[in-house]
Design goal:
about 375 residues; alpha/beta; Enolase-like, domain 1; 2 domains; globular
Length: about 375
Amino acid sequence: MKIKNITLHIISMPLKKPFVTHLQTVEEREGIIVEVQDADGLIGLGEGVAFSTPWYTEETVKTSYHMLKDVLIPLMISSPFPHPKEIGKRFEAVRGNSMAKAALEMSIWDLYARQQNVPLWEIIGGTRHEILAGAVVGANSMTGMIEQAEVLVQEGYQRLKLKISPGADVGIVKELRDHFPSVSLLADANSAYTLDDKARLQTLDEFGLEMIEQPLGVDDLVEHSLLQKELSTPICLDESIVTPLDMKNAIYLNSCGVVNIKLGRVGGYTSALEIYRLCQENSIKVWCGGMIEFGVSRAHNLALATLEGFSIPGDISSSSKYWEEDIITSPIVVKNGVADRLAGQGIGVELNRKRLSEVTRYSETFNA
């Protein structure tokens, strides 16, 4: 793969509604759009999904930009490579910084598929024609949550994710379950609990949740293993699974029954596909998580979720849920709880250059 240049765009857009968790309220979303161009003029697209502050992981937009500019791009162009997997392996020489790695690696996978003139989902072995979609209910009041949930259910979303924390959990889950007795509900704790909260978490078993996501520490596997033995509700690991080794250890310890695979969190496709394989071989369910993304990362999520094992609805909502206008020419659309896989080359979307220009704060191009 002969690379001509790489362009980084730092962009920022206001959300249509604030995204609320116990850790952070996000009203303006920053991100990094990556373009990798080859000698023939084809362009592969990636997206850096770190937030402006380190509330989800230690990475931020600024640290990701530094890693891309000063470390990862020079490493990528340091010698030729025949396949995107080589870049995933090459980046293992750099510790951490998964979201920066993913942004660049995703663009290389997209470019590779475009060079082959096929969709990216075909390259990675995807078979699903329709991708099951879920959505996050995030509001700062019970009334607001119910109203959001009603809209999402009417739009056909098959799974709702609720944000919970100590003191804002059992009542919220009960209220949502009473209003929506047949809808699949997932409670996402974002590491808000400790083992001392075991009894409170056990109370949630009665509501038929599909899973409780990341109840304990962000880097923990052992205590999740202890907790899972005490719950009938499956634990889903999110932040704890960053590498395939993390996944192997979670399997050895029986730390979870489900894994949320996010391309940004695990460093891109090379790592994600290995984690997916380990889950398939060990009967652990998987689904595709979201990061309040712009359209580029959302399209990558669609490609990943075409893999047969992604049978749980993922965080793949319509572009219009978050943005007045997305940065891609054909916004992602979910109808009746499903999104169709994209048929074009690569990830199947192109940048809306006018919109990109409107929301770009800074751009820089690096020659290979």
